[in-house]
Amino acid sequence: IHSESIEDPTPSHPPEDEEWLSRFELTERSGKTVKSEDLLGQPYVVSFFYSTCPSICVQQNQKLKELQDAFEGEGVRFVAISVDPETDTPERLREYAARFGADENQWLFMTGDLTYIRRIGAEVYRQHADKQVHTERFILVDASGEIEGFYDWPQKRQFEKLKDAIRAMIDAEDS
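Now predict its structure.
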């Protein structure tokens, strides 16, 4: 029986056949496929959102904009994953990202199949994600792909701790 090894860097199909997801690939607003392996090498912050959310997601993405401004051009990325992929096509995500002045190299907006996104939320990032449902939490992932921590962005102290943790990771990479 042939089984694809996890080490294979070029799977012929998305890894959703894994019993427990350790990697994934989604479609970025540019239309390009981005794999979880592509995110390695620098820390990144993951969030779940949907473009038609009238309140919480707007506030959440304003917080990400604050982070983008604070770490402009530095070695950290922001990965916003839609929990309403039927609505959030790459074209819709391009328009949405433009509202926040999202840098296309630093701030990625991802979409894909909803069932697959549910699994990515639960199995990769330990977060509940469902159609138009998500937590008010940022997940900080280190350069090797390990989760460093979970931060409730509406709480000022948590948000400041997240900024400090990102700064420490960037400084460690630079030294």
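Strands lie at 25-28, 33-35, 44-49, 77-82, 107-111, 138-141, 147-151.
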